[in-house]
Every structure is written in C-alpha cells, then in structure tokens.
Design brief:
Blueprint lengths: L36 E5 L11 H22 L10 E8 L12 H7 L11 E8 L13 H8 L4 E7 L9
Parallel strand pairs: 2-3
Antiparallel strand pairs: 1-4, 2-4
Helix pairs in contact: 1-2
Length: about 170
Amino acid sequence: MMSMRLRGHAPDNGLRHQRCDMSDARLEPDISLPFPIEFVIRDTPRSHQGRNSKGKERWKQKVGEIAGTHVKVLREFYFIDQRPLALTIFYFPPTVMEGDVDNIVKLIADGMVAIIYPNDCLLERIIVQKFEPGVEAVFQSLTPTLERAVETDPPVIYIRIDDDLSWRELP
C-alpha cells in the first residue's frame, strides 16, 4: 500500500487572495477554548442567498450570541487562536426543508467569527446535513448535546466546532 502526503498549494495566477494564517500550535489549555465545542440553536437557519440583508445580519448575530453564551459557560476568560478547525452542522427541520442545505452554512460560520475563531478561513472541514421528518437516520454514538438536539422538537440546529485533525489522515 502506498502512502502519499498532499500539500495544499495555489497556482500563481496573478490573483490576490486573502491569506489565512493557520497554526497547529495551541495556547495554554487554561486560556484557550476547550474543543470540541457543541451547542444547539432552536430556530430555523437563514440562507445566505436570502434577500433580507437585515434578517441575515440578525441571524448571524443570534448565532454569535448563542455561541458566546455557551463559550462563557465553558470558560469565563479565553483567547482565540489560529488553529485549523472543523465545523459540523446538523439541521433538524420540522417539515421538508425549502432550499438547499448548503446555503445555511455561511451565515452560521460567519456568526461565530471573533467568538470561537478569529476568521472563518480557519475552517478546513465543514460537514452539513439535514435530517428531515420521515427519513430514518442511525447515529452510532451521541454526545449529550447531540442527544439533546435529536430529542428536541424541530426546528433545531446542532453545531460542533472541533480541533481534532485526525480527519486529515485519509484511508
């Protein structure tokens, strides 16, 4: 069996892109956020393609407030750092979802900027999934927060931010 290590690179095509400085170095455990971070939002997510810009801003603010409230329970004083992260979003809608599930990601990710991470460019991996009524899903293991989300009447959104990089090792 052959093993290959891939390195991300961008072609030099003359375009300027915002640079995202990442570091696998972690701050001291008593001043950094304790990952994974999980929380639940009891609401219907907004689409980044929606036309109501004030509604989108209110949604990002709500996500940020709920994330901030949860983080303050975990740690009163903390610094956010430049570590690469993974984001998981599970949406449990009350009926068949209108629109595409991928359209809910941007506003949720943007809502946590400056609260859980300094820039959403640090998100290397994003998993988003909807669990519509009548579609059976089997979870192999449930954290207490995910269990609460599954048992809550919809609409509910489960969010997990993790710094575990084991997913970089592909089978």
